[in-house]
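The pair is quoted verbatim below.
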Amino acid sequence: MPRLRDLPSHVRHHIGWWVRDRFPNRKVVREVQGVKMVLPWPHRLPDYAGDGPYGQNLVQLASALAKESSPVTVLDVGANVGDSALQILDATDAQILCVEADPYFLEYLHLNVDADPRVAVVEALLTPDPTTEATTAVRTGGTTRFAEGDVGDALPTVTPDELRTRHPSFADLRLVKSDTDGYDVALVPAIAEAWGSAHPVLFFEYDHRLSRVAGNDPLAVWPRLKELGYRDVAVWDNGGQPLGRTTVDDIGARTAPLEEKAGIRAQTYWDVAVVHQDDAAGLAAVEQLVPASQRL
């Protein structure tokens, strides 16, 4: 019988995940890309991040925006355990509004950020539709999506307009990060509209498969953002490597890689940053990370 260390790395990972998944409530302290945080033992973040660029595009974008406006104000939707907030705060001066609706991850979010006065936590499901009733948290390896079901473990909802009204210190919001497993394509335009006068840079996970699982058309996001005045788009792969630049007009025709499948599942998703046409400083920040000469 082969020893564990002799198996391929992806096999070792899956065996390790299977073991760790048996202990969902075990708390561990991990250093992820130089930042210590409390995590549930099954969380995949340390495995995905390693010493590579995973997640650092968001941190670098926040740092670049802070050079023009410090502290940089950030809305972190789907804050999870607070890993994005912690890494941004470690890299630059920021004020962060974290929104999380899964009670399981909220425990870790509070453990990680409550001691920092620069962070505020909202325990609610952010949704563009005030009639949304998402009652069941579907958790997979360190992330959550919400669906209708019989288990009432999701928190009350809040709309982007209500969120802005309740948190006036974030009226001049500079950066939106959204990672909500398929709801981003519906939620991000609603956030952009609620903070329309601020023209925040929009950074979100763009996943065709999960968008459709959530009942959303992933291509519909681009004309909606165009209507709100957004134009330029920077794209990274799901490991944080830059792929290139495009526009809201052209990106829909370039999404074929997101439709490629291994078996029945899409192989990849993108991180995207979208900049308003009147936001010269935001465009300059994106240019530092993904130059316009690098076409998607």
